[in-house]
Amino acid sequence: MAWDSPQLRFAVREPFPSRSSDATIIVGNVSDIQPLILESHMPENGIIFSDGLEADYLKFNAGTVAEIKIADRQGKLIV
User: For the whole model, what pTM was predicted?
Assistant: First the structure.
């Protein structure tokens, strides 16, 4: 993937399947034409966060849908 490519790559940090759940999406790509859409099935205490900063979490309980897509504004890295 080129440095300036409008894509995201993701990996699930701890994909724990259990008797009542599965981990079927653990890595993938997000692009302008293919967002990542997730729906929570956790009845309570579900959260979603990125970059390992759990303190910046959003509640993600049963029925909540998250759509991860490419942002309209892009950050610039200045070295």
Answer: 0.73
Question: What is the Cα 1 distance to its own chain's centre?
Answer: 19
Chain mean position to CA 18: 20
Phi and psi at residue 48, in whole multiples of 5°?
-135, 135
Handedness of CA 29, 16, 53, 64 (dihedral sign): positive
Instruction: Write down the domain spans for the chain.
Output: 7-68
The answer to whether the CB of 54 falls within 8 A of the CB of 29 is no
pLDDT of 25 reads: 84
Is residue 53 over pLDDT 80? no
